[in-house]
Amino acid sequence: MPVDESPEILLADMVENARVALRHASGLTREAFNQSRLHQDAIIRRLEIVGEAARFVDVDTRNAIDVPWPKIVSMRHILAHEYDSVNLKVVWDVITTHAPAMIERVERYLHGWSVSLRPSVPLAGSPSIGPPRFIVFDGNEGCGKSTQAKLLRERLERDGRDVLLVRDPGTTRVGELVRGILLNPDHVEMGMRCEMLLYMAARAQMMRETIAPALEAGQWVISDRFVSSTLAYQLGGDGLTADEIRAVADIAIGHRWPDLTLIFDLPVEKSRDRVRAKYVQTTKTLFGEQTTEVKDRIEQRPIEYHEQVRRNYLSQAQASPDRYRVIDGDRDPQRIHIDVLEALGIDPQTPV
Fold first, then answer.
1. DSSP label at residue 292
2. b/e per residue 119-143 (b: at least 16 CB within 10 A)
3. Which helix (H) or strand (E) holds 288?
4. 325 and 263 in contact (C-beta within 8 Å)?
5. Cβ pair 168, 200 in contact under 8 A
6. In angstroms, what CA-CA distances link 115 with 100, 101, 106, 291?
7. What whole-number distance in Å separates Cα of residue 98 and Cα of residue 105?
8. Please, are residues 148 and 139 in contact by the beta-carbon 8 Å criterion?
9. Average pLDDT by consecutive 10-residue portion of the chain (352 residues)?
10. Alpha carbon distance 308, 296 (integer Å)
């Protein structure tokens, strides 16, 4: 019986080991990576396996997938040298740029999908923004992220781009049902681990039903909140750690993390002033039923909790400056919108 020499086994092995390397690198800054031999070994040994497997992928398959093969294959040589600054820079480039691109393109190939992403049309007078992107708008309550997400969608649509705007949790039928459970102030007994898992469940459905198909179709996706919210609001509750949250999130979102997360920072005092009641509670009294407008279950938490949420957002951005941008949310919305465009490489002066 002939041995199966199809490239699929090699490609699947490359993807699996590249993902392990990326999980090890998750949350690391370049400085932390350069200083930790333990992290270097964990990441580089997985990338070495990727590079070794890549050597045996046939030329036709390489051409079909069109990944940066020289960079990938070079990983098998890294362990033969000292981890000097040059080698570490090569590895960092691979884990931040080339490995994610390789995983996406190889998976498209293995699923029989078109590998070539539909190119974006560059904005006149501004640099190309590249292929469709997954952008998250996040921040504490009342920070203005929803307004800014809508402004960006309008700008991109005027420039001829296909855009999907989603809200997390929600957007899908299942997600909206979960959202109602999460925010209903009646559910006072809900624990943080339950809360975290419900957010992830809604997220998994939204990724499967809306986000992944939109990205595959060539659309930009703008999400009003995402995993960054869970890392801010649920972190520390019931002993939850960032690693636990990221591990569950990675499964829920099918390993498709946002390309960029914009954090709109606002002092908690101003945040609370902007929040409006969203729920109506009915109470029976001797004089009949009385209705009272109340804030949702999360908004009702004490100011100390929301101060910690704000610190958690800023800590995320500080730890991953290549994937986060912090924008001052305490200004005129149009000024903030300009900062959003600049963060995405869009010239705000370009006429539409």
1. E
2. ebeebeebeebebbbbbbbbbbbbb
3. strand 288-294
4. yes
5. no
6. 14, 11, 8, 56
7. 11
8. no
9. 67 90 83 86 88 85 76 67 69 79 82 53 35 86 93 90 92 93 89 96 96 88 97 94 95 93 93 64 60 68 92 93 91 94 82 43
10. 18
Tokens of 132: 């469709």
Choose among 281, 279, 293, 305: nearest CA to 192. 305
pLDDT digits (tens, 9 = 90+) for 140-191: 988 999 999 999 999 998 888 889 999 999 999 999 999 999 988 888 899 9
Rounded Cα gap, residues 143 and 316, in angstroms: 17
Helices within the chain (DSSP H only): 8-25, 30-35, 37-54, 59-65, 69-73, 75-78, 85-93, 99-110, 145-158, 173-183, 192-206, 212-216, 227-233, 242-252, 268-274, 303-319, 333-343
Assigned token pair, 218: 């060539």
State whether residue 167 is helix, strand or coil.
strand
Query: Is 43 within 8 Å of 25 (Cβ atoms)?
Result: yes
Q: CA neighbours within 13 Å on the CB side: how many for 141?
A: 25
Instruction: Respond yes or no on whether the N-terminal peptide bond of residue 7 is cis (omega within 30° of 0).
Output: no
Q: How far apart are CA 36 and CA 250, in angstroms?
A: 24
- What strand order describes the sheet that includes 220-224? 163-167, 220-224, 134-138, 260-265, 324-328
Q: Are 138 and 262 in contact (CB under 8 A)?
A: yes
Distance CA 238, CA 195 (A): 10
CA Rg value for the chain: 23
Under 8 Å between Cβ of 326 and 314:
yes
Residues in the chain: 352
111 DSSP assignment: T
